[in-house]
Amino acid sequence: MCGIVGAVSQRNIVPILIEGLKRLEYRGYDSCGVAVHQSGELKRARSTSRVAELNTAVDEDGIAAGTGIAHTRWATHGAPAVHNAHPHFSHGPGAEANSASAGRIALVHNGIIENHEELRAELKAKGYAFTSQTDTEVIAHLVEHLYSGDLLDAVQAALPRLKGAYAIAVFCRDEPHRVIAAREGSPLVLGVGEGENFVASDAMALAGVTDQIVYLEEGDVVDLQLGRYWISRLHAESGRFEAQQREVKTVHAHSGAAELGPYRHYMQKEIFEQPTAIANTLEAISSISPELFGDGAYRIFKEVDSVLILACGTSYYAGSTAKYWLESIAKIPTSVEIASEYRYRDSVPNPRTLVVTISQSGETADTLAALKHARAQGMEHTLTVCNVSTSAMVRECKLAYITRAGAEIGVASTKAFTTQLVGLFLLTLALAQTRGHLGDEQEAEHLKALRHLPVAVQAVLALEPQVIAWSEEFARKENALFLGRGLHYPIALEGALKLKEISYIHAEAYPAGELKHGPLALVTAEMPVVTVAPNDALLEKLKSNMQEVRARGGQLFVFADADTAIESEAGLHVIRMPEHYGALSPILHVIPLQLLAYHTACARGTDVDKPRNLAKSVTVE
Ligand code: G6P
After folding, report:
1. How many whole angstroms separate alpha carbon 478 and alpha carbon 476?
2. Which tens digits make up the pLDDT trace of 146-167?
3. pLDDT (tens digit, 9 = 90+) per residue, 341-379?
4. 311 CA to middle of ligand 1, Å?
């Protein structure tokens, strides 16, 4: 998703901007660009290929300077094309547009400006020529229009006109050592250096440049100059921008620049890192207690009478799995909602609900907005299960469980998902304990199973060659159906999501009992039906559902636990899972589905780590 890096320094900051973009690259983007203040002019390079190509263009054009901004774009308004790539320039009304070096204002933007059409019409009427279909260009022209010698004044005048979510960074030809940045709804950090200052959409982009980070708050505007910075925000009462003090934190942001090692793709590497990621996530756990989730957790857990889980994508399926655990083990009523639905829905708030957000990135706009919505309705007990300790989600929630999956580069989430499940299982046990549903013996048993998980996962990974054999056949299909029941229905959903995300095969998942109410009509010999078949209480029911498929000539591909007595025969292919794993079985069963999606995508030759149209961290609505 879109990324921003900006800098004001005495040295040439172009290598820092490019390196920053590279660190944000894994989030997904379709074009990139950089603009600097060089020899009294604005210069820029933009590209629809990779940041490495942008770097070559920058070198060839001799772009080097102390002040500049850079951007990776994930298209929302306007196709992925060079003319839509950021930075956008404004040349002033009536000026010849689209010249490479004649602009006065240069601007990058993350987020969406909802009233861009209205502003565009207004600026067009004033003589501004538009060269892109983006909402961003509107802001560049608006700032230019309001500029009369002081960039901060111009940006502060422009911001109240913008509706929507944004983070911006902007500089001006007439003020060589100054960048102004602002945020409202999209993340932005200030990096404080010695005699130089930086801005970025994520501290990770500044790793190795500065570890002195200010997390800008909603509505903050920051004026970056060489030896100083100044933060302000609009005060509703005075109607003026007033100075703000913000804490500078020392942040050891990891670079995200992981080596591929022996793997073909980051996704494959991350699938195989799951035993370590799970072990790391469990490292400090010697017993179950609410305090694993932060100070004050016991009091909150005692007070709550229900759980509301809010998340998107794969994280939503982690939440859907956790619902089964929370209701059966902790006996606490739980609902799971897709964040983008919940935030706009009339719901009945309950102040005694524990609001749990799940997010690998901690920056997903919809999940953050859903959290805000819950809080605005008086639901103050908030907890997040998140993989990034410095993220907005962790800062916004009272309690947190930080998973230790490490940086996940592949857009399709794998190790973040299984570690989320581990965090959510621990939450289940802690709530069960607080509510009197977890005896010492049960706690010891669950802990034993958790500690053995890395070994159990390793054994499942050894199934890879058998999954590869299946993937050849899947690669020739255009549709697939996934079935699961109970605790494994969300796993079937996650398996279908993985397959569609990276192989572009249309895949759907159903609770197996629903088959006869619709999807059975789709079943033919051309429709592979993947079935998640653990040896649990629903196995016999599931076998009946499998018969319904067989009777219609469907091809079953079954991941069956060791002792299920499901044997391969014509039209029924079986891969046997090493062991049945009780309540934690979903964590094992998702792994072959990840491998199936991965190898099918490889067989189809797709860009596995950066699937088309998708982004790793979705910071727009
Ligand atoms: C994007 C990613 C998914 C992820 C979802 C939610 O769609 O591609 O892998 O599951 O966002 O992201 P989050 O960071 O909140 O878990």
Report:
1. 7
2. 999 999 999 999 999 999 889 9
3. 999 999 999 999 999 999 999 999 999 999 999 999 999
4. 9
597 by Cβ neighbours in 10 Å (0-12 / 13-18 / 19+) ranks as: buried
Residue of 323, 415, 610, 616 with catalytic role: 616
Query: Whole-prediction pTM value?
Result: 0.77
151, 166: one domain: yes
Ligand 1 atom showing the smallest separation from residue 501 Cα? 8
Cα–Cα dist 572/553, whole Å: 10
Residues 280 and 150 in one domain: no
481/451 same-domain check: no
371 belongs to a structural domain: yes
Q: Residue 351: which CATH number?
A: 3.40.50.10490
**Greatest CA separation for the chain:** 79
Same domain, 490 and 435: no
- Token pair, residue 420, equals 């989320």
259 Cα to the center of ligand 1, angstroms: 22
- Does residue 612 sit within a domain? no
H or E element that contains 314: helix 313-328
The number of domains in the chain is 3
pLDDT bracket for residue 592 (50, 70, 90): very high
**Residue 274's domain spans which residues?**
266-460
How many angstroms is it from 361 CA to the middle of ligand 1?
Answer: 7
Let me know whether 37 and 87 are in one domain.
Answer: yes
Does an H or E element contain 457, and which?
Answer: helix 440-461
The residue nearest atom 15 of ligand 1, judged by CA position, is 359
Indicate if 30 and 71 belong to the same structural domain: yes
Distance 499 CA to ligand 1 centre (A): 15
- Residue 445: inside a domain, yes or no? yes
CA distance between the termini of the chain: 11
Atom number in ligand 1 closest to CA 614: 8
Going by alpha carbons, the residue nearest to atom 13 of ligand 1 is 359
d(C-alpha 364, C-alpha 50), whole Å: 24
Active site (annotated) includes residue 610: no
331 classed as catalytic: no
Q: From CA 285, how far away is CA 292, in angstroms rounded?
A: 8
Cα separation, 9 vs 587, whole angstroms: 48
